[in-house]
Every structure is written in structure tokens, then in C-alpha cells.
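Translate sequence into C-alpha cells.
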Amino acid sequence: MAEIDGGRLFAKALKREGVEYVFTLNGGHIYNLYEGCVDEGIKVIDFRHEQVAAHAAEGWAKVTGKPGVAIVTAGPGVTDAVTGIANAFQAPSPMILIGGNAGITDHLRGGLQDFDSATFLKPVTKFSEQVKRVERIPEYVSIAFRHATSGVPGPAYLEIPIDVVGGTTDEENVKYPGSYRTESKAYGDPEYIKQVVDILHNTERPMVLAGSDVWWNDASEELREFIEMIDSPVFLNAMGRGSIPSDHPNLGSLGRRYGMVKSDTVILIGTPIDFRLSYGADSLFPQNPKLVEIMMDGSKIGQNRDIDVGVVGDSKAVLRQIMDELKATGYKSPGKGWVEEVITEDQSLKAADEAMLNSDQSPIHPMRLMKELRDVLDEDATVIGDGGDIVTFAARVLNINEPGHWLDPGQFGCLGAGSGFAAAAQLARPGKQVCIVYGDGGFGLTGFDVESYVRFNLPIVSIVGNNGAWNQTTQGVVRRGMRGIGTYLSQETDYAKIMDGMGGYGERVTDPEEIRPALERAFNSGKPALLDVVTDPDVAYAAMGGRSRQQRQY
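Result follows.
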């Protein structure tokens, strides 16, 4: 057989994994990979910063359910991508990072960008190794994909020295792995399934919180069937958003605290008890409800609060097991009174938002901005949140109707992740609306990659909420009597001019009556577009939420 080089072998191995795109910033140590990818029909999408390439790989996973692949050059190329890897590790999301290095033969001789990146990345990956021989490249690729996708998903890293990626071997020496990982689902222990069912038979006020596991396990339909069977309100977070359509009668958003406080059983599906649930504080669980956790990651079960039953497994499989056992044991739901009570409270909280949603103040109220955006988005639009306060307003107002159509960094809280997420979403969903909501702080981290949107003709609409501050921090410290040192930006900065200068569509919006026309112009332009919307720096989400809680004593 013919000689083949390492770059082509890598590309062939990636092609066998179904890879359509690789996300990258070029470098001499990795260039051969590009030639191989193009020859194999894999599209190369290059960004202006390796962090964005890594985020794009995670973003691809978030919108397709399949691992994304990023390729970065040696040394600082790898370290620039670490933030993206860390976010995927914390999320967790499956992705593959391939990083260059100096040649093995030059190790410890002072080679350009020689760096033990495989060891460096072990703490934030499920698998991290150096590929030492050309003929073993496909084997290493298969191992990386197996680790990234098995059990709890996460990132895997392959370091490829330049003399491996540029080395050659006779292809007859190469083994391409075939059936090397299982597609079977992890079912819950039947004994624990029975315990969950016993609890539900004695429950009058069930409450379901569902998160990212529902998306990764393709469990949206099972979740819908489950909440309808037990007549439970359901609240969604993270990648779980969109798993239940926004018009479903059991779906709440603002009434979550009410439901938590009043319920007698709380079922957490892929939702860890972390800062988002007040670390399990008694104030959120005053009735001391029965607590059931269903998680892919068993290490998260029982975190911060004692539980009654914990089930480790695939949420699609586990929910089906629970429903089958409920049917087999003659289960009857407590009726619709409870879910109607919670959703009525939820709707009353939403009604209290009306004045803000229709505010005609200037600078613009963020809630008015989100209302106008909500009204122009298609049912199947993908929305990315990349900011602080502005994203909390977006999450409060926008309707997400399909799973995998809301992307945010997750528990790591990584500003700057959105630029890569948005690019991946638009590539995965051509012809569909993709909108990213930035804070002006978040935009400053990776926003220059709107130039990449223009180069690759990705008609992403970017909304920058320009309040001239890192406002979550600013408002938080000012409320405590401090000065907000280092937290202020300039509202005079017109971010729309950046997009305009790159060849996209840019427009600044200062009048609330111009928000909707500007949004329509942006979406209809057919170009990458950016709206710089000047918003009120004195509006803080935390203070607004506090007022809502004070109005209702629970």
C-alpha cells in the first residue's frame, strides 16, 4: 500500500468518526492536518483565537450531541485553548482537542514551543495523551472519542508532535478501529427505581427540575410523558431548556421558588444541587420534601443535601423504567390542582413583569430589549447567552421551544464562550436563526471573531447590551457601599462599528421604539449583524428578583 503521512491519517480517522468540521487557528506544528482534512472533505473553520476554536468545538457538541473537534498549535496555542477545555469539562460536554508540539526527537533540547501539554491538560480532561507513532494515530483518535462520549461526557486531548503529524508510514501498517465503544444505555438499579415509585405513590405535590442530562440522553419525550403522568410542574435549566415546549401547561419559569418551597417531593434530573439551588439550603426546602436525584454522574448525587433516593443512569432509560413501574403498580396522579397552583403563581409573576417589558425609558430597559427580541425570534431559533446580567434577563423572557436551542457556558460561568458557540450553531443549523446575546463585557473577550462570521458567511445576529459596566459586579459591590473599582466600561463605545468595519451589518439602538425595526433589519440583512443596544446601567437583575420575592412571602 501507499505511504501516508500523519496529517492525512488523523483526517481519515476523524472522517470515520463522522466529523464534518474542525475548528482551529493555524500554526506550523499542525498544518499537515489541514491538508488531510480538506482532502477528506472535512471543512476547516479558522478563528482569531484558540479559545474561540475550543468553544466552537464544545458548541458543536451542544447543538448536535456529537463531539466537536478543535485543532490548535503548540505551546501557547494549547494554553490559549485551556479555557474552552475547562468549560467543556465543567459543563460537561464531549469534545476533542488536538494540539501540536515540538518533535519527539527534539524534546528537552529547547525546541520551539516544546511543552508537555498532555500532562498539563490531564486535570481538565477525561483523557490526555501524546501520540508517539504515526501508525497508531487512528487508535489514539478512537480512544479519545470513546473517553469523550462514554458515561459522563467530557473533553479528551491528543498531543501530536510535529515529527508525528509530518511523519509517514505504509498504510498497511495502520489499523482502523471499528466497533470499539458501546452505544448501550445505563439503566437504573431496579431496587432504586422501586423506591422512587414508592415515593411517588405517596406524593401529593411533586416538583421536577430537569437539566442538561435530558439533552445529552435525548430524553425530552420521556420527560414530557413523565410530568404529564404525575401531574408535576417542571422547571428547566442549562441544556435542559427547550426540552419541554414553552407553551406546555406544566412548564414554569419564574415560579420555581414557589414550587420548591411548597412541594413534598422534588425530583432532580441532571440538575446538581449547586449554587443555582442555594447549595441545598433549608430555606429552599422548608417542607423537607422527599428528594430524588437522577444523574449520569453519580458523584454529584447527594452533593450539599441529603437525599432519599439517588439513581445513577441515563435519564431517558431511567424515566422509562420509572413510568413502566408506575403503570405496573396502578399509579394514580394526585390530580391537576397542584400543578395549576404553581403555574398560576408563575403566571402572576410574569404579569408583574409587564411594565418592564413595555418600558419606554431611555437608556433602554433590558427587559424591553428581550421582549422585542422574543417577538422576532422564530420558534426554532437558537439563542446563545454570553454575559452577566443581560443573559439573566434573556433567560427570564425568551421562549426556547426545542432541546439544544439554548446555549450558555453553564456552571463554569465562562464569559467569551458564546462567540464559538454561535459559530458552531450556525454551521450545524444553516438557514435557521442564530442569535447571541452579549454583555458589553463579554463581547470584549472574544467579540473580534465576528470577523470570522463574515469570512464564513455566517448570518449570526449579535445583540450587545451596552450598559457601560461589568454590571453584575458593579451593582453588587455598589449596593454594599463600595465604589465599583475596575468594573466600569464606556457606553460611548459603539460596538456596531466593529461589525460594520468587518463587512457585516451594524446598528446602534438608543430608542426603545427602534429595537424591533433594528432587529428586523439585522435578521433580514442576510449578513452577520450586530446591534449595539444602549441599556440602563442602573437596572440590576438581582435587585429586581429581590423585589419579586419580597412581594410574595415564600
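Note: The chain has three domains: 3-173, 190-348, 353-546.
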